[in-house]
Amino acid sequence: MPPLFFLFVLIFCFQTAFANDVETQRLKDLDAYWTEVSRTVREGDFEGYKATCHEKGVLVSGNKKTSYPLSQALARWKKDFTATKTGKTKAKVKFRFSQRFSDETTAHETGIFLYSFTDLEGNWKQEYVNFQALLLKGKDGWKIMMEYQQSGSTKDEWDTLAPETQ
C-alpha cells in the first residue's frame, strides 16, 4: 500500500471517529434537554420549563392552523403547572424521535410526545402528538425556538419509535 494512500485512510478514520464522538455528545446533550423538559412537567416546575424555552420562541398548532409566541402558550399553561406542583393533578411527558438533525448550535427534532395527565377526579388521560422542534444552543444551553405540534398521533405510531428520552 503506498504511504500516501495509507495516510489518507488514517486521516479519514480519525476524522470520522471524532465526528461520531461529537455527534454522540450532542445527542446526549439534547437528550438531557428533553429529560429536563420531562422533569419540569412531572414536578410542575413552571420556571424550570420556561427556562427551556427561547424568549422569542414560537408555538405552531397544526390542528388549530395557527402560530403565536410561545410566551402566550406559557401564560396559558401556567395554571396546569401550578395544579401539578400543588398536587391537584399529575402530569408527565415522554419523547420519541423519528428524525434528529443537528450541528453545534442548531437542532431540528421530529417525533411524537406522549403527554399524560390526571383530571380533577384522578383519572389518567393520554395525548399522543406528532411534533417538530427547532432548538438553538446558546451560552445557557439548548432552548426551544419553535415547537410545531403537527397533529394527533396514536399508540401504534408511538410504539414504532424507539424509546429515547423519558
Keywords:
globular, 166 residues, alpha+beta, 7 strands, seven-stranded mixed beta sheet, 4 helices, Nuclear Transport Factor 2, Chain: A, 41% helix
Terminal CA distance reads 49 Å
Low-confidence stretches: 9-19
Please list the strands of the largest sheet in the order they lie side by side. 2-1-6-5-4-3-7
Radius of gyration (CA) equals: 19 Å
Question: What about the largest sheet?
Answer: 7 strands, mixed
Level-1 CATH class name: Alpha Beta
- Under the CATH scheme, which architecture would be assigned? Roll
Number of separate structural domains:
1
Q: What is the percentage of strand-forming residues?
A: 35-45%
Order of helices and strands: HHEEHEEEEHE
Number of helices: 4
Account of the 3D structure:
There is one protein chain. Helices cover 41% and strands 41% of the residues. It is α+β, with helices and mostly antiparallel strands and 166 residues long. The protein has one domain: Nuclear Transport Factor 2, Chain: A (Roll). A seven-stranded mixed β-sheet has the order 2-1-6-5-4-3-7. Mean pLDDT is 89; it is low at 9-19.
Brief write-up:
With 166 residues, the chain is an alpha+beta fold. Helix content is 41%, strand content 41%. The longest helix has 41 residues.
Architecture blueprint of SSEs:
Elements: H1 3-43, H2 46-50, E1 53-61, E2 66-69, H3 70-85, E3 91-102, E4 106-118, E5 124-138, E6 141-152, H4 155-160, E7 163-165
Parallel strand pairs: 1-6
Antiparallel strand pairs: 1-2, 3-4, 3-7, 4-5, 5-6
